[in-house]
Amino acid sequence: MTIDLVKEISAEVFKTILLASAPALLVSLVVGLAVGLFQAVTQIQEFTLTFVPKILAVFICLFIFFPWIARLLTTFTINIIEKIPVLIR
């Protein structure tokens, strides 16, 4: 196993992690900004008000994007398993 191979696998891992987590993180960011703006406009400073909309939005996002995330992770896993003969050398 060479250093170049380790770099390639590491880059693929990080790319897959970023792609799989991006939808949930972006939805959480947008909902957090919207709730923060709502709190600033109405001057309601309730800390728990932020969590419920974010959790609901992330769950809905994961429900919608789960097939795509599962396909992405399955493809990554299949690619890694297919590379095992190369990795053993």
Using only C-alpha atoms, the radius of gyration works out to 19 Å
Oligomerization status of the protein chains:
single chain
- Total of DSSP H or I helical runs spanning 4+ residues: 3
Query: What is the helix fraction of residues, given as a range?
Result: over 70%
The N- to C-terminal Cα distance equals 7 Å
Number of separate structural domains: 1
Low-confidence runs:
none
The average pLDDT is: 91
- Order of helical and strand elements: HHH
- How does the helix and strand content classify structurally? mainly alpha
> How would a textbook summarize the main sheet?
none
Proportion of β residues?
under 5%
Global outline: elongated
The counted number of beta strands is: 0
Quick description:
Helix content is 90%, strand content 0%. With 89 residues, it is mainly α. The relative contact order is 0.14.
What does this structure look like?
This protein is an all-alpha fold and 89 residues long. The protein has one domain (3-88). Helices cover 90% and strands 0% of the residues. It has helices spanning 3-42, 48-82, 84-88. Helix 1 packs antiparallel against helix 2. The longest helix is centred in the first third of the chain and has 40 residues, at 3-42. The radius of gyration is 19 Å and the shape is elongated.
